[in-house]
Protein 1
Amino acid sequence: MQKEQILHYVKTHLTTARYQHVVGVAAAAKQLAIQYGGDPEQAEIAGLLHDVAKQLPLEQMQSLAQRSFGDTLDTEIMVNGNLLHGYAAVTMARELFGVTDATLLASLAHHTTGAPVMNTLEKIVFLADYIEVHRTFPGVETLRALAKQDLDRAVLAGYDSTLYHLLEEKQPIYVGTIVNRNALLAMIMKNKEGKGYETR
């Protein structure tokens, strides 16, 4: 029942293109969960909810986010809807659909900026947002292929894709995204290569 309620809500409150995107993310997240030992239903619900606040006015996003996070969010996040909408989605998931799963809520909050330490669902939703079937940006096919091989390295590639894009567009970069990307890189180096950062 919860899935049907969410589907109806996003279909009636988002543009057609945004609705198609969230359905695509839900499908990609479900598949990644199957591949990487997550909960497919949980991942699908997270995918459907991740952009539920995306098209709200900034002031409404701010009010929603404050109800769940108080004054703990960085100013950079609070004034940028592209960064804030995931945190606003947490409140909407709780209040509109009764979601209480902390892991799922964290995946909504962090699907754009990431986090210094991410659980499997957070990584899945973060990555699904990049690789869903409607995405057409340069390099997406490479990212999709990597997603089938290594979850952590695919998430890292997602970070890098965003950073490259923002640099090319001469857009500001949220420092937290860089911190989170570097934390993941350090973890990959430590866990899979047995060493820290390499220098060329």
Protein 2
Amino acid sequence: MGETKKILIAEDDPASRELLREILDALGYEVIAACDGVEALQKIVAAQPDLVLLDIQMPILDGFAVLRQIRQDTRFATLPVMALTAYAMKEDREKALRAGFNAHISKPVNVAALRTQIEHYLSTKMSAS
């Protein structure tokens, strides 16, 4: 099947971060975790994940600021980044997509929908490389 895909979770809430880690572990992904935007950027450079789940509301740098920095780095311009947010309104989703997120996942996370989105973006990334 090839090597295990790496997913970075950037989430400041420990309970949410751990729940996502358990879900992704169970789905067979290697999980890297960050608790704020600065740590997320450092780990993206160091670990070069295949996909990022990025909480919108984080201390130090919020998800939008982190995404802007990711997209400015040519190494990560096409890295799939999915917004994680408690804001589930249509306008919030549209704002995230306009900002450059590939997808918008609302919390609490629907595991089946999360899995479908991850598989879609990882398969798209593989076919592009």
Protein 3
Amino acid sequence: MHFLFAWRYFKSKKSTNAINIIAWTSIVAMIIGTMALILVLSVFNGFEGLVKSLYSTFYTDIKVSAAAGKSITVSQEQLQKLKGLNSVKNFSLVVEEKALVQNGENQSVIYLKGVDENYRYVTGVADNLWNGEYDLGNEEIPKLILGVGVEGALGIVADRNIFSLKIYLPRKSNTDQINPLEDISNDTIRTSAAFQIQQDFDNKYGITNIDFMKKSLKLGANDYTAVEIAAKDPQNTNDIQKAVQQIFGNSYLVQNKYQQNQSLYSVMNTERWVIYGVLCLILVVAAFNMIGALTMLVLEKQKDISVLNALGANRSFIQRIFLSEGMLLALVGGGIGMLLALLIAWLQIKYHLIPLAGGSFLIDYFPVKLRLMDFILVGSTVFVIALIASWLPSTKAASQDFSLRSE
């Protein structure tokens, strides 16, 4: 019954135009706030998904590394147990170290990864070559695959470079106080290709043959930096992580893809909530307009409140009428805002209407990804803000005593 009164007040023409103007201003503000929240969150979802997919190209589902120090010892027994896990698609043995690569006067410090033949099956590097062919060579004649950023810094074209690069690596040995330079390996290497994935990797990484790396670093036969594992079903990563941890023991660090990039995901999650909080201010502005509109409506409907009191309506019923009026304003504004956001997002997904300026990114339009939870979150936020905004005017209406004689 109270909702019917609220609906009638919503449709009826107010005696004061200011009430209509303020009420519709609050609705428009709700529309803009709701639409902005959903669209910005959807664009953020799109960029988040894109960044995660790029990082997933380079990082594997599971990584086994040293809990302390740089290197780990991997036994044949552990490798056999790892092969016996049905949920593991493939794995690669990795040796990683900082290296100085030099081409004449051009030089670059990179993270050099020595990998085995399985590496191309556990990451997407081989599928993201900018030029050349995936070729790591062998221990005696190693080949180097560079990120395109490193390629540019060295001033070469990886698949056309006819000259060898100089590469310097620290050896694993006790430092010779007389001649520390003897602990630095000095080798030459040819490039075979360049990859392009994401700027963080393109500017920092190079990939080469693991046997060459172990020889240069003077590592033992079973010494590695990490074991990188690809899962058959990434949804079962947590179960695989537990099984791998049992194989290697607690002295090894076993991380999933999220844990390998925890700082990145934490920052992205924080940014998401900061954006949400800032855009909620638009809804707060709409709430102030709603308070003004409902307060003026209460003053206008004093006679109606007196009649309802005379007919036996209690204070709770009066309060629910004006609470329902506020919820109705929020429902109209929030509903229209969601529909407009859905329409704009669909058009952007289908037709890429809004371009991404600059032209240097992997895509030339704003990515959008709609999520049901965003609609639920925004709808709940609109409801709570409208409830709080309606509470004060509705309480004021319920607390007033009017008599028909005075009217």
